[in-house]
Amino acid sequence: MLLDSSGSAARTKAAGLAIAVAMALTACSAGSATTEKKDARPEVTSAGDQAVVVRVIDGDTFEASVNGEQKTVRLLNVDTPETKDPGKPVECMGPEATKALEQLLPVGSSVRLELDKEPLDKYGRTLAGVFDSSESLVNAEVARMGFGVPVVFEPNTKFYPPVAAAFDEARTKGAGLNSSDIACLPAQRVDRAAEVIEEIVAAPLATAAADLDRSHTGLVAALATVAALKTAATAKKHVHWAAYDAAQLTAMENRLDSAAKAASAHQAAIGAKKKDLVAAAAAAKKKKLAEAAAAAKKKKLAEAAAAAARQAAVAAAAEAERLRNLPPAPAPYVPPAYVPPAYVPPAAPAPAPNPYPGYNGPRCYAPGGQSWTPCSKK
Length: 378
Prior knowledge:
The chain has 378 residues and is of the alpha+beta class. 46% of the residues lie in helices and 13% in strands. The chain contains seven helices and nine strands.
Protein backbone atom coordinates (compact mmCIF):
# COMPACT_ATOMS: atom_id res chain seq x y z
CA MET A 1 0.00 0.00 0.00
CA LEU A 2 1.54 3.34 -1.04
CA LEU A 3 2.22 5.92 1.62
CA ASP A 4 0.99 9.40 0.71
CA SER A 5 4.01 11.71 0.65
CA SER A 6 2.14 14.90 -0.27
CA GLY A 7 2.60 18.05 1.76
CA SER A 8 5.32 20.63 1.77
CA ALA A 9 8.66 20.37 3.56
CA ALA A 10 7.73 23.42 5.60
CA ARG A 11 4.65 21.76 6.99
CA THR A 12 6.67 18.64 7.80
CA LYS A 13 9.32 20.62 9.65
CA ALA A 14 6.70 22.68 11.46
CA ALA A 15 4.92 19.55 12.60
CA GLY A 16 8.16 18.03 13.87
CA LEU A 17 9.06 21.18 15.78
CA ALA A 18 5.58 21.44 17.27
CA ILE A 19 5.78 17.84 18.49
CA ALA A 20 9.24 18.35 19.95
CA VAL A 21 8.14 21.51 21.74
CA ALA A 22 5.00 19.83 23.06
CA MET A 23 7.04 16.91 24.43
CA ALA A 24 9.52 19.31 26.04
CA LEU A 25 6.78 21.36 27.62
CA THR A 26 5.12 18.21 28.90
CA ALA A 27 8.36 17.09 30.52
CA CYS A 28 9.04 20.50 32.07
CA SER A 29 5.56 20.91 33.49
CA ALA A 30 5.05 17.42 34.87
CA GLY A 31 3.02 17.48 38.04
CA SER A 32 1.83 21.06 37.53
CA ALA A 33 -1.55 22.20 36.30
CA THR A 34 -1.92 23.79 32.85
CA THR A 35 -4.73 25.51 31.04
CA GLU A 36 -3.19 25.20 27.56
CA LYS A 37 -5.13 23.23 24.95
CA LYS A 38 -3.64 19.96 23.74
CA ASP A 39 -2.40 19.56 20.15
CA ALA A 40 -5.31 18.52 17.89
CA ARG A 41 -3.09 15.91 16.12
CA PRO A 42 -2.86 12.40 17.60
CA GLU A 43 -0.10 11.91 20.13
CA VAL A 44 3.05 10.50 18.53
CA THR A 45 4.90 7.62 20.12
CA SER A 46 8.51 8.22 21.01
CA ALA A 47 11.37 6.06 19.78
CA GLY A 48 11.43 2.74 21.56
CA ASP A 49 7.78 2.79 22.68
CA GLN A 50 6.32 -0.65 23.32
CA ALA A 51 3.08 -1.63 21.63
CA VAL A 52 0.77 -4.64 21.48
CA VAL A 53 -0.58 -5.79 18.11
CA VAL A 54 -4.37 -5.52 17.97
CA ARG A 55 -5.00 -6.49 14.33
CA VAL A 56 -3.28 -6.51 10.95
CA ILE A 57 -4.95 -4.30 8.32
CA ASP A 58 -2.87 -5.20 5.28
CA GLY A 59 0.72 -6.04 4.32
CA ASP A 60 2.25 -2.83 5.66
CA THR A 61 -0.29 -1.48 8.18
CA PHE A 62 -1.58 -2.72 11.53
CA GLU A 63 -3.31 -1.47 14.64
CA ALA A 64 -1.58 -1.54 18.00
CA SER A 65 -2.24 -0.52 21.57
CA VAL A 66 0.36 2.01 22.71
CA ASN A 67 0.22 3.04 26.35
CA GLY A 68 -3.41 2.08 26.47
CA GLU A 69 -4.29 4.02 23.29
CA GLN A 70 -5.06 2.28 20.01
CA LYS A 71 -3.07 3.58 17.05
CA THR A 72 -2.69 2.70 13.38
CA VAL A 73 0.95 1.99 12.52
CA ARG A 74 2.36 2.19 8.98
CA LEU A 75 5.65 0.33 8.33
CA LEU A 76 8.26 2.77 7.08
CA ASN A 77 10.21 2.35 3.83
CA VAL A 78 8.34 -0.73 2.62
CA ASP A 79 5.31 -0.88 0.33
CA THR A 80 3.04 -3.87 -0.27
CA PRO A 81 0.19 -4.51 -2.75
CA GLU A 82 -3.12 -2.81 -1.96
CA THR A 83 -6.07 -4.65 -0.44
CA LYS A 84 -8.08 -2.01 1.43
CA ASP A 85 -8.25 0.98 -0.93
CA PRO A 86 -11.99 1.43 -1.67
CA GLY A 87 -11.14 2.95 -5.06
CA LYS A 88 -8.99 0.03 -6.24
CA PRO A 89 -9.45 -3.72 -6.62
CA VAL A 90 -7.47 -6.09 -4.43
CA GLU A 91 -4.04 -6.19 -6.05
CA CYS A 92 -1.99 -9.23 -6.99
CA MET A 93 -0.24 -10.72 -3.93
CA GLY A 94 -2.03 -8.29 -1.63
CA PRO A 95 -3.78 -11.01 0.43
CA GLU A 96 -0.51 -12.96 0.63
CA ALA A 97 1.30 -9.87 1.95
CA THR A 98 -1.41 -9.42 4.58
CA LYS A 99 -1.06 -13.03 5.71
CA ALA A 100 2.72 -12.62 5.87
CA LEU A 101 2.40 -9.63 8.21
CA GLU A 102 -0.13 -11.58 10.32
CA GLN A 103 2.50 -14.29 10.74
CA LEU A 104 5.18 -11.76 11.62
CA LEU A 105 2.90 -9.82 13.99
CA PRO A 106 0.45 -12.21 15.68
CA VAL A 107 -2.39 -10.52 17.52
CA GLY A 108 -1.34 -9.90 21.14
CA SER A 109 2.39 -9.93 20.39
CA SER A 110 4.59 -7.12 21.73
CA VAL A 111 6.59 -4.91 19.39
CA ARG A 112 8.84 -1.89 19.69
CA LEU A 113 8.15 1.18 17.54
CA GLU A 114 11.01 3.35 16.37
CA LEU A 115 10.24 6.64 14.63
CA ASP A 116 12.04 8.69 11.99
CA LYS A 117 11.92 12.43 11.18
CA GLU A 118 8.21 12.59 10.30
CA PRO A 119 6.20 10.59 12.88
CA LEU A 120 2.74 10.83 11.30
CA ASP A 121 1.28 10.81 7.82
CA LYS A 122 -1.68 12.96 6.77
CA TYR A 123 -4.09 10.23 7.86
CA GLY A 124 -2.74 10.34 11.41
CA ARG A 125 -1.01 6.95 11.13
CA THR A 126 2.17 6.46 13.10
CA LEU A 127 5.14 5.95 10.77
CA ALA A 128 7.62 3.58 12.34
CA GLY A 129 10.20 0.92 12.13
CA VAL A 130 8.70 -2.08 13.93
CA PHE A 131 10.86 -4.50 15.91
CA ASP A 132 9.52 -7.80 17.20
CA SER A 133 10.42 -9.51 20.48
CA SER A 134 13.70 -10.78 18.96
CA GLU A 135 14.59 -7.26 17.77
CA SER A 136 14.13 -8.22 14.10
CA LEU A 137 13.05 -5.32 11.91
CA VAL A 138 9.61 -6.39 10.67
CA ASN A 139 9.75 -3.84 7.83
CA ALA A 140 12.80 -5.65 6.42
CA GLU A 141 11.29 -9.10 7.04
CA VAL A 142 8.28 -8.21 4.90
CA ALA A 143 10.68 -7.24 2.11
CA ARG A 144 12.82 -10.36 2.66
CA MET A 145 9.74 -12.52 2.07
CA GLY A 146 9.25 -10.65 -1.19
CA PHE A 147 5.90 -9.12 -0.30
CA GLY A 148 7.04 -5.49 -0.02
CA VAL A 149 9.37 -3.32 -2.05
CA PRO A 150 11.72 -0.68 -0.61
CA VAL A 151 10.40 2.84 -0.98
CA VAL A 152 11.43 6.31 0.18
CA PHE A 153 8.88 8.82 1.45
CA GLU A 154 10.77 11.94 2.30
CA PRO A 155 12.00 12.82 4.80
CA ASN A 156 11.83 9.31 6.30
CA THR A 157 14.78 7.23 5.00
CA LYS A 158 16.03 5.67 8.22
CA PHE A 159 14.92 2.10 7.50
CA TYR A 160 15.41 2.13 3.72
CA PRO A 161 18.90 0.50 3.66
CA PRO A 162 17.94 -2.66 5.63
CA VAL A 163 14.64 -2.95 3.69
CA ALA A 164 16.47 -2.61 0.35
CA ALA A 165 19.08 -5.20 1.36
CA ALA A 166 16.35 -7.62 2.46
CA PHE A 167 14.45 -7.18 -0.81
CA ASP A 168 17.63 -7.89 -2.78
CA GLU A 169 17.67 -11.28 -1.04
CA ALA A 170 14.06 -11.90 -2.06
CA ARG A 171 14.85 -10.92 -5.65
CA THR A 172 17.81 -13.30 -5.72
CA LYS A 173 15.64 -16.13 -4.41
CA GLY A 174 12.72 -15.26 -6.69
CA ALA A 175 10.39 -14.94 -3.73
CA GLY A 176 7.04 -13.16 -3.45
CA LEU A 177 6.72 -10.34 -6.00
CA ASN A 178 9.75 -11.82 -7.81
CA SER A 179 8.11 -15.25 -8.25
CA SER A 180 8.12 -16.75 -11.72
CA ASP A 181 4.95 -18.81 -11.27
CA ILE A 182 2.40 -16.21 -10.13
CA ALA A 183 0.20 -15.49 -13.13
CA CYS A 184 -0.92 -12.03 -12.04
CA LEU A 185 2.58 -10.59 -11.68
CA PRO A 186 3.90 -8.28 -14.46
CA ALA A 187 6.65 -10.63 -15.69
CA GLN A 188 4.15 -13.43 -16.25
CA ARG A 189 1.63 -11.02 -17.80
CA VAL A 190 4.30 -9.78 -20.19
CA ASP A 191 5.18 -13.36 -21.14
CA ARG A 192 1.53 -14.27 -21.65
CA ALA A 193 0.78 -11.23 -23.81
CA ALA A 194 3.89 -11.80 -25.92
CA GLU A 195 3.14 -15.52 -26.27
CA VAL A 196 -0.38 -14.81 -27.51
CA ILE A 197 1.05 -12.59 -30.25
CA GLU A 198 3.88 -15.01 -31.04
CA GLU A 199 1.42 -17.89 -31.39
CA ILE A 200 -0.81 -15.94 -33.79
CA VAL A 201 2.15 -14.67 -35.81
CA ALA A 202 3.74 -18.14 -36.04
CA ALA A 203 0.60 -19.70 -37.53
CA PRO A 204 0.20 -19.60 -41.35
CA LEU A 205 -2.20 -16.96 -42.63
CA ALA A 206 -5.70 -18.36 -42.82
CA THR A 207 -7.44 -18.66 -46.17
CA ALA A 208 -10.89 -17.75 -44.85
CA ALA A 209 -11.91 -14.18 -44.03
CA ALA A 210 -13.62 -15.25 -40.78
CA ASP A 211 -10.41 -16.90 -39.54
CA LEU A 212 -8.39 -13.83 -40.50
CA ASP A 213 -10.84 -11.64 -38.58
CA ARG A 214 -10.44 -13.84 -35.49
CA SER A 215 -6.65 -13.53 -35.70
CA HIS A 216 -6.95 -9.76 -36.12
CA THR A 217 -9.27 -9.50 -33.09
CA GLY A 218 -6.82 -11.54 -31.01
CA LEU A 219 -3.96 -9.26 -32.03
CA VAL A 220 -5.97 -6.13 -31.19
CA ALA A 221 -6.69 -7.44 -27.69
CA ALA A 222 -3.08 -8.55 -27.20
CA LEU A 223 -1.75 -5.19 -28.41
CA ALA A 224 -4.03 -3.38 -25.94
CA THR A 225 -2.57 -5.51 -23.14
CA VAL A 226 0.96 -4.87 -24.39
CA ALA A 227 0.33 -1.12 -24.49
CA ALA A 228 -1.03 -1.13 -20.92
CA LEU A 229 1.93 -3.18 -19.69
CA LYS A 230 4.39 -0.94 -21.54
CA THR A 231 2.86 2.15 -19.94
CA ALA A 232 3.06 0.59 -16.47
CA ALA A 233 6.63 -0.58 -17.08
CA THR A 234 7.69 2.88 -18.26
CA ALA A 235 6.05 4.61 -15.29
CA LYS A 236 7.59 2.19 -12.75
CA LYS A 237 5.32 3.65 -10.08
CA HIS A 238 3.32 0.56 -9.23
CA VAL A 239 4.57 -1.63 -6.43
CA HIS A 240 4.68 -4.72 -8.66
CA TRP A 241 6.89 -3.06 -11.28
CA ALA A 242 9.12 -1.61 -8.56
CA ALA A 243 10.02 -5.19 -7.65
CA TYR A 244 12.16 -5.59 -10.80
CA ASP A 245 15.68 -4.29 -11.30
CA ALA A 246 16.72 -2.21 -14.32
CA ALA A 247 17.89 -5.21 -16.37
CA GLN A 248 14.64 -7.10 -15.79
CA LEU A 249 12.56 -4.06 -16.74
CA THR A 250 14.62 -3.51 -19.89
CA ALA A 251 14.22 -7.14 -20.93
CA MET A 252 10.46 -6.98 -20.34
CA GLU A 253 10.11 -3.72 -22.27
CA ASN A 254 12.15 -5.14 -25.15
CA ARG A 255 9.95 -8.19 -25.34
CA LEU A 256 6.83 -6.02 -25.33
CA ASP A 257 8.30 -3.85 -28.11
CA SER A 258 9.24 -6.90 -30.16
CA ALA A 259 5.80 -8.45 -29.72
CA ALA A 260 4.06 -5.19 -30.66
CA LYS A 261 6.21 -4.86 -33.79
CA ALA A 262 5.49 -8.44 -34.84
CA ALA A 263 1.76 -7.95 -34.18
CA SER A 264 1.65 -4.79 -36.29
CA ALA A 265 3.44 -6.50 -39.17
CA HIS A 266 1.08 -9.47 -38.96
CA GLN A 267 -1.93 -7.16 -38.95
CA ALA A 268 -0.63 -5.63 -42.18
CA ALA A 269 -0.23 -9.12 -43.65
CA ILE A 270 -3.77 -10.00 -42.61
CA GLY A 271 -5.04 -6.82 -44.27
CA ALA A 272 -3.21 -7.67 -47.52
CA LYS A 273 -4.50 -11.24 -47.39
CA LYS A 274 -8.07 -10.06 -46.90
CA LYS A 275 -7.65 -7.69 -49.84
CA ASP A 276 -6.46 -10.60 -51.99
CA LEU A 277 -9.40 -12.71 -50.83
CA VAL A 278 -11.83 -9.92 -51.72
CA ALA A 279 -10.26 -9.57 -55.18
CA ALA A 280 -10.31 -13.34 -55.71
CA ALA A 281 -13.93 -13.53 -54.58
CA ALA A 282 -14.85 -10.71 -56.97
CA ALA A 283 -13.06 -12.46 -59.85
CA ALA A 284 -14.72 -15.77 -59.01
CA LYS A 285 -18.11 -14.07 -58.85
CA LYS A 286 -17.49 -12.37 -62.19
CA LYS A 287 -16.44 -15.67 -63.76
CA LYS A 288 -19.47 -17.41 -62.30
CA LEU A 289 -21.76 -14.71 -63.65
CA ALA A 290 -20.11 -14.99 -67.09
CA GLU A 291 -20.46 -18.76 -67.06
CA ALA A 292 -24.09 -18.44 -65.98
CA ALA A 293 -24.73 -15.92 -68.77
CA ALA A 294 -23.07 -18.21 -71.33
CA ALA A 295 -25.06 -21.18 -70.10
CA ALA A 296 -28.27 -19.16 -70.25
CA LYS A 297 -27.48 -18.02 -73.80
CA LYS A 298 -26.67 -21.55 -74.86
CA LYS A 299 -29.87 -22.79 -73.32
CA LYS A 300 -31.85 -20.03 -75.02
CA LEU A 301 -30.29 -20.88 -78.40
CA ALA A 302 -31.00 -24.56 -77.85
CA GLU A 303 -34.58 -23.78 -76.91
CA ALA A 304 -34.93 -21.54 -80.01
CA ALA A 305 -33.47 -24.28 -82.24
CA ALA A 306 -35.79 -26.82 -80.71
CA ALA A 307 -38.77 -24.51 -81.20
CA ALA A 308 -37.74 -23.87 -84.84
CA ALA A 309 -37.38 -27.62 -85.39
CA ARG A 310 -40.80 -28.19 -83.90
CA GLN A 311 -42.28 -25.46 -86.09
CA ALA A 312 -40.58 -26.92 -89.18
CA ALA A 313 -41.89 -30.36 -88.31
CA VAL A 314 -45.40 -28.98 -87.90
CA ALA A 315 -45.14 -27.10 -91.21
CA ALA A 316 -43.82 -30.18 -92.98
CA ALA A 317 -46.64 -32.28 -91.56
CA ALA A 318 -49.18 -29.64 -92.62
CA GLU A 319 -47.71 -29.50 -96.17
CA ALA A 320 -47.77 -33.27 -96.40
CA GLU A 321 -51.38 -33.24 -95.25
CA ARG A 322 -52.21 -30.54 -97.80
CA LEU A 323 -50.64 -32.54 -100.57
CA ARG A 324 -52.53 -35.62 -99.53
CA ASN A 325 -55.80 -33.68 -99.76
CA LEU A 326 -55.25 -32.19 -103.25
CA PRO A 327 -57.78 -33.21 -106.04
CA PRO A 328 -56.59 -35.54 -108.82
CA ALA A 329 -54.25 -33.87 -111.27
CA PRO A 330 -55.84 -32.83 -114.71
CA ALA A 331 -54.84 -34.47 -117.99
CA PRO A 332 -51.62 -33.25 -119.44
CA TYR A 333 -51.98 -30.03 -121.45
CA VAL A 334 -51.50 -30.36 -125.17
CA PRO A 335 -51.00 -27.00 -126.82
CA PRO A 336 -52.86 -26.43 -130.18
CA ALA A 337 -50.87 -26.38 -133.42
CA TYR A 338 -49.69 -22.89 -134.35
CA VAL A 339 -50.95 -21.50 -137.70
CA PRO A 340 -49.39 -18.15 -138.61
CA PRO A 341 -51.96 -15.56 -139.88
CA ALA A 342 -51.97 -14.48 -143.54
CA TYR A 343 -50.14 -11.22 -144.38
CA VAL A 344 -52.39 -8.32 -145.33
CA PRO A 345 -50.54 -5.18 -146.47
CA PRO A 346 -51.60 -2.08 -144.68
CA ALA A 347 -53.96 0.36 -146.41
CA ALA A 348 -52.67 3.75 -147.58
CA PRO A 349 -53.09 6.38 -144.99
CA ALA A 350 -55.95 8.83 -145.50
CA PRO A 351 -55.05 12.48 -145.95
CA ALA A 352 -54.76 14.31 -142.73
CA PRO A 353 -57.60 16.68 -142.15
CA ASN A 354 -56.85 20.45 -142.00
CA PRO A 355 -56.68 21.33 -138.40
CA TYR A 356 -57.52 24.91 -139.26
CA PRO A 357 -60.55 24.88 -141.53
CA GLY A 358 -60.73 27.86 -143.86
CA TYR A 359 -57.09 28.77 -143.33
CA ASN A 360 -55.52 29.44 -146.72
CA GLY A 361 -52.23 30.86 -145.81
CA PRO A 362 -50.76 33.92 -144.26
CA ARG A 363 -52.68 37.20 -144.56
CA CYS A 364 -51.35 40.65 -144.96
CA TYR A 365 -53.64 43.32 -143.48
CA ALA A 366 -53.99 46.80 -144.80
CA PRO A 367 -53.38 49.64 -142.44
CA GLY A 368 -56.18 49.91 -140.00
CA GLY A 369 -56.71 46.12 -140.04
CA GLN A 370 -59.97 46.27 -141.89
CA SER A 371 -58.88 44.36 -144.97
CA TRP A 372 -56.21 41.85 -145.95
CA THR A 373 -54.81 40.03 -148.84
CA PRO A 374 -52.96 36.73 -149.07
CA CYS A 375 -49.34 37.38 -148.46
CA SER A 376 -47.15 36.45 -151.33
CA LYS A 377 -44.49 33.97 -150.73
CA LYS A 378 -41.09 35.40 -151.31
